[in-house]
Every structure is written in structure tokens, then in C-alpha cells.
Design brief:
The protein is mainly alpha-helical and about 90 residues long. It has 2 helices and no strands. It has one domain.
């Protein structure tokens, strides 16, 4: 749903060729999301008194978003590693 690249490869079944299985895991290892996590912004930059305060607010919002992006990336890596390690086709 949040992938920049469409269509996403399917997981397949026990008869899926190995090259398609590897393509599936490669896709998830290099997953690119369009999500931006702006809902977690701490500051509304429209409330800034001057440009210096606005720059500070934007920097803090970027820092906070980066934390959520990194957490989401770690979650996807963990899920992909679990699936790969337990996949009988590999």
C-alpha cells in the first residue's frame, strides 16, 4: 500500500521458481515507501514568530520524522529476515 514501486511481488507458493522468490526478498530488502510520518510533527511551522524559529521547528520535525522512518525500516527488515530464515524454498 505504501510502496513507491508498483506492483509488489507476491510471496508465491512452494512451486514458485527460485528467481521469483529471490526477487520478492530483494524487493523487500530495498523497500521504498512514500510515507512521510508528518502526523508526528511536534511543531506547526505556521506558528513561528520569525524565520529562525521556523527553521528550528522544521529541523526538529525532520529529526522526529527520521526516528519514525528508521523504526519502520527496522520493523520491515526484521519481518523480511524472519520470512527469509523460515522459508523452506531457500
Amino acid at each position: 500500500m505504501w510502496s513507491k514501486k508498483k506492483p509488489c511481488p507476491s510471496f508465491g507458493d512452494d512451486k514458485t521458481p527460485l528467481n521469483e522468490v529471490k526477487a520478492f526478498y530483494k524487493f523487500w530488502d530495498n523497500f521504498q515507501s512514500w510515507r512521510e510520518f508528518s502526523q508526528y510533527d511536534e511543531y506547526d511551522t505556521n506558528d513561528a514568530q520569525d524565520r529562525y524559529e521556523k527553521r528550528y521547528m522544521e529541523a526538529e520535525n525532520r529529526r522526529r520524522r527520521k526516528e519514525y522512518v528508521n523504526a519502520e525500516r527496522k520493523r520491515l527488515i526484521k519481518l523480511t529476515e524472519f520470512a527469509y530464515n523460515n522459508d523452506p524454498r531457500i
